[in-house]
Amino acid sequence: MTLLGLIKYAFVLLLPALYLAHRYYSAERTRALPPVAPDPEKPVKTIMQAPRDDLAPPKDDPFTLEQLREFDGSDPSKPIYVSIKGTVFDVSHKADVYGPGKSYSIFAGKDGSKGLGMSSLKPEDAIPDYSGLNEKDRKVLDDWHSFFSKRYNIVGRVTDHPQPLSSNL
Ligand code: HEM
């Protein structure tokens, strides 16, 4: 065998051995590390806004779906409302998100429960009737309800929501 052949042969044998050794030692290293427990002092970083502790007591003002349309942000002198499962939230302080032409304006001045549950921004999905949602999407919808409840003042409820109010949160 030539010297070159010998070197090639050594390489072929050496590479898998190096790979296996690397795997073995990195596995050992990981095992040796203490488990990382989340630090309750350090809040988890998220791009979503944090829950608020200065919310006003919930109001129970009645709104029809028709009346809700007034509060879609197109009149800057009026608040912006988003309804989820018939609960009306005042989202005015997030006009940068719900105002006209902004990312989630599709949900302003209406109850777009179905679209929220489906994670859809299509106008045809932003409707109050969420009866067609599967279990997973209903959970997503409930999570949004709880997200909004912790961040926005409740100003009322929709009186002509297609789902009976008893099935609301
Ligand atoms: C590529 C897809 C998406 C990206 C990158 C994205 C990104 C984001 C970001 C960065 C925020 C925080 C916004 C802020 O507070 O300024 C947010 C919030 C939100 N997103 Fe999305 N999003 C996406 C898709 C969707 C879809 C499909 C929906 C439909 C349900 C949705 C609904 C929302 C809602 C309701 C909020 C809460 C806004 C609030 O009130 O704070 N997003 N998203």
From TrEMBL:
Q: Which Gene3D superfamilies match?
A: Cytochrome b5-like heme/steroid binding domain
Q: Which SMART domains match?
A: Cyt-b5
**Name listed for the protein in its UniProt record:** Cytochrome b5
- GO MF term (any one): heme binding
Quote the Pfam families the UniProt record gives: Cyt-b5 (PF00173)
Q: Which InterPro entries match?
A: Cyt_B5-like_heme/steroid-bd, Cyt_B5-like_heme/steroid_sf, MAPR/NEUFC/NENF-like
- CC annotations in GO: endoplasmic reticulum; membrane
Q: Indicate the segments forming the Cytochrome b5 heme-binding domain, all copies.
A: 63-159
As for family, the record states: Belongs to the cytochrome b5 family. MAPR subfamily.
